[in-house]
Design a protein that fits this description.
With 295 residues, the chain is an alpha+beta fold. It has 2 helices and 10 strands. A 4-stranded antiparallel sheet has the order 3-10-9-8, with helices on one face. Strands 4-5-6-7 form a 4-stranded antiparallel sheet, with no helix packed on it. A two-stranded antiparallel sheet has the order 1-2. A hairpin with a 4-residue loop joins β5 and β6. The longest helix is centred in the N-terminal third of the chain and has 151 residues.
């Protein structure tokens, strides 16, 4: 090999020298390129290895985290299952007590239904007896009502007959009188009618006043042949003389507070006595008797 000192003579290198120099300098450049390529490839492999290892580590870490999370969830689930099992046990125990109570309640309900059925049967029996008794009593009441209606009808007919027997006439004041009784029995009929107040009397001949209901009467004179009489009537502080009145004639006079007249009817005249009645309106106030006048 030619060294650089061989060209120290100052002349240009020869062709052979240049070729040798080129060959000598070209060889390390390819080696450098190859080395660079090898280095780059090695760096890539290293990077790929590190990247793969990092990815694997991350995946492992993620897997570990997921495993821990799943383990925590499993623990929670197990705890929840344990709680549910405890609650279920308590519920089963309570349900057992409730079933006993329900069985007792059903027994009581069955007994109540049985008692109620017996009570219903007794009530039906009692209702039947009451209905039968009511029907009997209703029949009796109907019979009594029929009898009462008959009695009312008979009483009404009797009153009508009584009215037919009693007469009506005009009194000595010219006022139409009511029904006139002609004996004691007819006076009783007048009382039954209840249309006026009736005061029956028997007055002897005397100088003394005799009370008849709300008035006072003195018999002054009697004529048995003509069936006449004379009386003095003291009513409402007035002394009224009724002279020569005939038996059966309504002797009328007014008192204060009465719209209709008072009437004296004499139906029997004897030697020293008259028999009859005083008739006053229902709404009349009782006349206050005055002190009898002197004779």
């Amino acid at each position: 090999m030619v060294t650089p000192s061989q060209f120290s003579g100052g002349g240009e290198p020869t062709r052979v020298e240049r070729v040798e120099h080129i060959e000598t300098s070209a060889t390390p450049r390819w080696i450098s390129i190859l080395f660079v390529i090898a280095f780059l490839f090695l760096a890539y492999l290293t990077y790929a290895s590190v990247t793969a290892r990092s990815a694997a580590q991350k995946a492992a870490d993620d897997a570990s985290k997921r495993e821990q999370a799943m383990a925590a969830e499993v623990d929670k689930t197990n705890a929840r299952i344990a709680d549910l099992k405890g609650e279920m046990d308590v519920t089963v125990q309570k349900l057992g007590l409730t079933q006993d109570e329900l069985a007792h309640a059903r027994a009581l309900a069955q007994q109540v239904r049985k008692d109620q059925k017996q009570s219903d049967e007794q009530l039906k029996t009692q209702i039947g007896a009451v209905q039968a008794d009511t029907a009997t009593k209703f029949g009796q009441v109907s019979t009594e009502l029929s009898g009462t209606k008959s009695d009312v009808a008979a009483t009404k007919a009797d009153l009508e007959a009584t009215k037919a027997k009693l007469s009506s006439t005009v009194g000595d004041l010219g006022v139409q009188s009511g029904l006139i009784a002609r004996n004691h029995e007819e006076v009783e009929e007048l009382k039954r009618l209840g249309e006026r107040n009736i005061f029956e009397f028997k007055i002897k001949k005397s100088n003394q006043m005799q009370r008849v209901g709300p008035i006072q009467v003195t018999l002054r004179k009697v004529d048995t042949k003509k069936y006449k009489y004379t009386v003095n009537v003291l009513a409402d502080d007035k002394n009224i003389e009724k002279k020569d009145k005939t038996a059966g004639e309504p002797v009328q006079f007014y008192v204060h507070g009465a719209r209709a007249p008072y009437e004296i009817v004499v139906f029997d005249v004897t030697k020293d006595q008259i028999s009859g009645y005083l008739s006053t309106p229902k709404d009349a106030a009782a006349a206050a008797p005055a002190t009898p006048p002197g004779n």
